[in-house]
Amino acid sequence: MKRQVRLIRQDEVKPSKLCGETNMTNFIKTFRADESGAVTVDWVVLTAAVVGLGLAVMAVIGPKMGGVAERIGSGLDDARTMNFDYGVTAEPNT
After folding, report:
1. Over 50: is that where the pLDDT of 18 sits?
2. Residue range 71-85: average pLDDT?
3. Quick one: which of 78, 60, 59, 80 has its CA closest to 70?
4. Is 63 exposed, middle or buried (0-12, 13-18, 19+ CB in 10 A)?
5. Residue 20 phi, psi (nearest 5)
6. Hey, where are the domains in the chain?
7. What is the pLDDT of residues 27-52, one digit of tens each?
8. Are 21 and 15 in contact (CB under 8 A)?
């Protein structure tokens, strides 16, 4: 069985087929149409906005909360040292 070899003339060859230009053009078109990365960017921007808002709220409220935290802490210390007597004994009845 003989193989037939056909010689290609120079005017039959397209440069895009030799250089891979068609593959690169398809890649660029596909890359531009792909929106999966856009969703990630949206989530990053949304997360950054929430973190920024939280930091802004803490910057405004934080200095005012110092006194409240101290009052809560002293109230807890007082409650821990109190001795409540409800008439309950730990000894069994005899």
Report:
1. no
2. 75
3. 78
4. exposed
5. 80, 20
6. 37-81
7. 888 878 777 777 788 899 999 999 99
8. yes
pLDDT over 90 percentage in the chain: 18
Give the span between the Cα atoms of 20 and 28, in whole angstroms.
13
Fill in the DSSP letter of residue 46.
H
d(CA 23, CA 31): 12
As a whole number of angstroms, the distance between CA 54 and CA 51 comes to: 5
Average pLDDT of the residues of the chain: 76
32 membership: H or E segment, kind and range: helix 21-33
pTM of the model: 0.41
- With tokens 């895009």, the residue in question is 16
Q: How far apart are CA 71 and CA 77, in angstroms?
A: 10
Token pair in block for residue 56:
């802004």
